[in-house]
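Team,

Forwarding the record for the chain on the shared tracking sheet. I've put the sequence and predicted structure together so nobody has to dig through attachments.
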Amino acid sequence: MIDRRTLLLMSMALLTDGASAASRRLSPSPQTIDYGPARLDIYAGVGENSLPVMFFIHGGAWRAGNRSNVDVKPGFLLDNGFCFVSIDYRMLPEADVATQASDVDQAYRYVRANIAGYGGDPNRIVVMGHSAGSHLAGLTGLRGGLPGVAALVLNDTRAYDLEALARSGGMTPAYARAFPDPAQWRALSPASHVGSRRHPPTFVAYSRATGRAAASRAFAERLQATGTEVTLFDGSAYSHMSINRNFGDEGDALTGAVMIFLKAALG
């Protein structure tokens, strides 16, 4: 497990070069695409080729948020040699979580088929999600809905194992609204799709929010047992919101840890 204090100096070194001069960047303008059920934004530089791609799934308890909730991620990642994609997906109550996962699958397929035209490498797509988006990233990535995905970055959810969540008393109103049918809990749990095969390298981060550490550790251990490369980040210094909002800020420890992980995962 990566300790936040150990990474602080490394992350500061990574983020204080010319590409990271400002602690809060202005977001570049995206190109907006209708991929079918919803829209996605592609942030790309001019004249670039074969860049790794960060594909971002926003949070919001499966019923709120949108693709513009990206803070400084686009500017930071473009400055550090990535394309950045942020997607919308249909929200509760219009669409249930299973439908949302299908939306993610469809958005990913669109990006993989078309990102080369924006300078991205379709064979180096990293899928990152926060909160509900972290659950959807884990669910789609582990059940095989993201073919060829290079790595997963899962940032702060308790919804890895819904049956275990219910047994522990963690099925709060937000989770109960998103997952009303216990018969679907197993199919909608990322942990249920781990199985025995190796999965793409996975970064699991947790904040100090209730239950996040225990759920994240249990999930990481389950993945590690398959031989999957897993990095578990202790983000207990962060709130549930700041662990997402601060990504890309100068000196941010989580950002530094993710970039170290991606350097190893992407080669």
